[in-house]
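agent> Task received from the user: take the single chain below, predict its 3D structure, and emit structure tokens. No templates, no multimer pairing.
agent> Plan: (1) validate residues, (2) run structure prediction, (3) serialize to tokens, (4) report one or two observations.
agent> Step 1 OK, no nonstandard residues flagged.
tool_call: predict_structure(input=
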Amino acid sequence: MGDTRMRPERLARHAQIMHRVGMPNSELLTSPQVANALGCSLRTVHRLAAAKQLQPAQKLPGPNGAFLFTEDDVREYQRNRESAA
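)
tool_result: status=success, residues=85
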């Protein structure tokens, strides 16, 4: 599994984007942050989003726009995953 932590300059860029879309930074997580929180790969987060098992709160514009997830949704997914185990 690769390193899913973001470099400080990328985190700053994501913070700017999240501010522009009108949502506070503390409420949204990027895919790499979700991967880190769940202990899985970035690809797994993208698969979960595609399968609608972990619903992104927003997708940023463009064909390669980042998925943004709420902290509550990530916590709920974790609880459901742990209870199923």
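agent> Step 4: summary for the user.
Strands lie at 28-30, 58-59, 67-70.
agent> Done.
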